[in-house]
Design goal:
By secondary structure, this protein is an all-alpha fold. Helix content is 50%, strand content 1%. The chain has a two-stranded parallel sheet. Helix 5 (113-140) crosses helix 6 (143-158), helix 7 runs antiparallel to helix 8 (200-218) and helix 12 packs across helix 14. The longest helix is centred in the first third of the chain and has 28 residues, at 113-140. The radius of gyration is 20 Å and the shape is globular.
Length: 419
Amino acid sequence: MTQFTGLRRAALPQRLLSGLSLALCGLGAAGIPAAQAMTLEERAELDLSEYKVTAPDASYFDVEARMALFEDVDNPILLQEIDQLSTGTSCEQLLEYKPIDTRMRIPGYYPSPEEWELASEPLFQFEDNVSLLAGSYVATGDDYYAECLVRFLDKWAQDEALTNFYYDSMEPQAWFATESMIFAAAMAYSVIRPGFEGMQEERQRIETWLNTLAHQHSDIQGQAGNSCCNNHFYRRALYATMVGVLTEDNELFRFGVSAIYSALHDITEEGALPMEVARGRRATHYQNYAVLYLITNMQVIARQGYDIFELEVEGNTIHEAVDFALEIFENPAALGDMAPLEQYTGFLKDNQYFSWMEIYQTRYHDPQIAEFIRSVRPIYNRSAGGYITLYFMEPDAQRNIVMDEQQREDAAFKGLGEE
């Protein structure tokens, strides 16, 4: 087991952690000591020099092995996914989608959900497009989809798309939205990169664009007690590790790793992530949301040869956060005085939030997850990995989709009251 023994200077370049603040990054959750959260100063002193990119062609799953498995697979869920992705996506149609090269400004979700959704549609379409092309490549082995993805991303790279997002501490939504677009692009590109040859000039432009964009975006540290250190930090970390791998940039890679150390440092005795359970009636949602990006990030790191899933920081591992998320799904009373017991449960109807479970199950075979995940497969997350069930589910894990919507809701809401 990897053991974290203290905070040591060195590791993270100041360019990624400029303007360090002594303000604590964990204020506000009832019953949780604020001093528990790792500060930006402490994060800067982490010695992560042992973490280096070792396999730049390693995606977040073994693409070659997965495609080989599909040659003889007889699992109906996987076969349905393969069939749907083999129907003939039109590259020319996807290439008509215009890169976002204007000043991107997006209203906040909670104050203006309808306006946010309308403004976000082009961003979601980008994420769906790149995930679709990567998934179609895995399902068919046809270089047509890999070439199309390269052409698609190169178009955005040539236009320096997404680099002109608006950021203000009081209006960070465009900055938030750009996070998922970067890791959607990087993860999709990582899928086709190992097995697809040619188009070297275009690929170099893509990798330069992703690297520049990742540095530009992560140079903004976010607000103390909020986006500096919460789920948005974990999201930035996901693109940092993936782009770091693709471009052999150890600086970015270590920035991504630092999020795992920060999160594990902060975990409470119960397994709560303090800044997530501080979100009132959405505490359960945000505990799960944070775990989603942490687990996905850990998978990218693990593919570089690190035993990150067994990393221990201050006696904490990721498994406590996983166990607590599962516990509060079933029993909101486990939140104690950290959050209201009347928890928002709408997220349980949206399977994208459980993509982390497919990854986790390949390593730990948790029986509670095995039961829960049956009702939400096949899982698709447009940005954080795409067709996750297709890429990760073991063929003998489940053969049939749960079609009864009432059964889905009963499984998802067992032990929970509807909002």
